[in-house]
Design brief:
six-stranded mixed beta sheet, Rossmann fold, alpha/beta, disordered C terminus, 24% strand, binds adenosine-5'-triphosphate, 2 domains, 11 helices
């Protein structure tokens, strides 16, 4: 279980996260949504050790992460993807995955879902990488340089890299951003396949259609605070949430209906209401 316990983050005078508490349970997919600037990425960055918290605790299965360096956080079982892809362009896909491998003493979490081996040798580690690539439909890209891949393929490699680390919590920061319809549908299937009893999955997204179809529960953030928390059904009908997005009731229905008819990606810019991202 991943817990944000009364977490605050200030950047100078700007309070990006204001006393936020979240509980991300294993076995379910938890989405964190909210308009641009709400603080979603800041939460991920704090959990993964890119930003220090100003106050509060972040616990992964009772291990306090907030003061640990990044590599120890990874070893504790947290992995993430980035809003802006961060692969090593000059390395092959397999090498990019191998970089993420951590000591094999971690519990066997997503092994069942992804068919990973319980062993610890280098050969087995490489075989795990190949297995994950296969599950994501990109085994044929293993020897290609990451920098030579199409954008959608790079997004999948990032996902693969997060998976091979055998996390207990995986944080996906806008995995569908810039993907087309087909790629988003594929991604949806991969996220659903990740669901396993020992893995806490956090999905940060602007694509409402994707969120509403894969999430078990949703936290809605606005201006650094939690505005609402509940099932997709409860969030869909929440008046405060609708107002936070568009400043008017009925917005969630509008967003979803529009998402079905147009491109998948929705960007909600602070103060500008709804706009369509053009990948
Ligand atoms: N490195 C930083 N330095 C200063 N301020 C920052 C930094 N990172 C984020 N912020 C501020 O923190 C607040 C929350 O930003 P954050 O990126 O977490 O929002 P978000 O919900 O992820 O938005 P988006 O959907 O656009 O990614 C914003 O006011 C932002 O300007």
């Amino acid at each position: 279980m991943l817990v944000f316990d009364h977490v605050t983050k200030r950047f100078g005078a700007n309070t990006a996260i204001d006393d936020v508490s979240l509980t991300i349970r294993p076995g379910v997919i938890t989405a964190v949504i909210g308009p641009n600037g709400a603080g979603k990425s800041t939460l991920v960055n704090m959990a993964a050790g890119s930003f220090r918290t100003t106050s509060g605790r972040i616990l992964l299965d009772d291990v306090a992460l907030q003061d640990l360096p990044k590599y120890k956080i990874a070893r504790a079982g947290l992995s993430r993807t980035y809003q802006n892809i961060r692969l090593f362009d000059g390395l092959t896909v397999l090498q990019n995955l191998e970089v993420a491998l951590v000591p094999r003493s971690l519990p066997r979490l997503i092994m069942q879902a992804f068919g990973l081996s319980p062993g610890s040798s280098e050969a087995e580690a490489r075989s795990d990488c190949e297995t994950v690539l296969q599950r994501l439909g990109i085994a044929h890209l293993g020897e290609r340089h990451a920098g030579s891949l199409a954008y959608g393929q790079q997004k999948l490699v990032e996902l693969a890299r997060a998976i091979v680390a055998r996390p207990r919590a995986i944080l996906l920061d806008e995995p569908a951003a810039g993907l087309n319809h087909g790629e988003t549908d594929e991604l949806k299937a991969h996220i659903q396949a990740l669901r396993s009893p020992d893995l806490a999955i956090v999905l940060i997204e602007h694509d409402m259609k994707l969120i509403m179809s894969v999430s078990d529960e949703i936290y809605v953030m606005a201006r650094g605070a939690v505005l609402a928390h509940g099932t997709p059904e409860a969030i869909r009908g929440n008046r405060q949430v609708q107002e936070a997005y568009l400043g008017q009731p009925g917005a969630m229905g509008t967003i979803e209906a529009a998402a079905r008819g147009r491109r998948n990606r929705i960007r909600v810019r602070a103060g500008e209401g709804l706009a369509w991202g053009q990948p």
